[in-house]
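pasting for the record
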Amino acid sequence: MVNNKDSSQPMQNSQLFMLRMWQEDLGNGQCAFRGKIQHVSSGEVRYFLDWQAMQAFVEELLHTNYRE
């Protein structure tokens, strides 16, 4: 077991995202997953239809927040 200081303290340089997923009925017995992701500290929200769109948003924010 690894003990990284006090686990009640947030990690430096970390980002918190809230992810919500749901299933939509497309008709004809088909369904698709949809999602909403929010960057907690900025409040910025994006809706997405696929994992690539969600990943692009996360990478964009991480790149922006860690730019030197």
